Amino acid sequence: MIKKPLVYFLCTGNSCRSQMADGFLKALGQDGYLVKSAGLEAHGLNPRAVQAMQEVGIDISRNTSDVIDPEILNRADYVITLCGHADEHCPAISNRQVVKWHWGFDDPAKAAGTEEEIMAKFREVRDSIKNRIELFIREGK
């Protein structure tokens, strides 16, 4: 049996960006990865993130917003932070085999304006995350 790489997506609140990355890798990774996501805090799943992902046919509505688990962190093959705050405050990783990357994306939850303008920001970030996930799957980085 081939061991699937464990990918752990981290963000500040595990409500938007890490949830979208989780959803995309699960959907596009063709069952080739174990995928988890978490945050420095658990802010709850953002309904706009759920809506933005539903628009592209991915259901993350049953995902949970979780706090970083040190065991998963140190068991992961890849730890990928999606915001600067999580990158700067990520707990120490004791397993030297873990590959840690930072993919920075704007926080769509901080978008202001009309509902359509806010959703436009969610879609923009969603599409950027999708592109980055596709590159990861293709090139392993």
Description:
This protein has five helices and four strands; from the N terminus they run βαβααβαβα. It has 141 residues and is an alpha/beta fold. It has a single domain (6-139), classed as Response regulator (Rossmann fold). Helix 1 links the parallel strand 1 and strand 2 (34-39). 37% of the residues are buried. The protein is 40% helix and 14% strand.
How do you describe this structure in short?
40% of the residues lie in helices and 14% in strands. The chain is of the alpha/beta class and 141 residues long. The radius of gyration is 14 Å and the shape is globular.
Radius of gyration: 14 Å
Specify the CATH class: Alpha Beta
Low-confidence stretches: none
Q: Which quaternary structure do these chains form?
A: single chain
Task: Please bin the fraction of helical residues.
Answer: 40-55%
| CATH homologous superfamily title | Response regulator
Major pleated sheet: 4 strands, parallel
Q: Which CATH-level-2 architecture?
A: 3-Layer(aba) Sandwich
Number of strands: 4
Shape: globular
Number of helices: 5
| Cross-sheet strand order for the largest sheet | 2-1-3-4
Core attributes:
4-stranded parallel β-sheet, 4 strands, 40% helix, 5 helices, alpha/beta, Rossmann fold, single chain, 141 residues
Architecture blueprint of SSEs:
Blueprint (H helix, E strand, L loop, with lengths): L5 E6 L5 H12 L5 E6 L7 H8 L15 H6 L2 E4 L2 H6 L9 E4 L12 H25 L2
Parallel strand pairs: 1-2, 1-3, 3-4
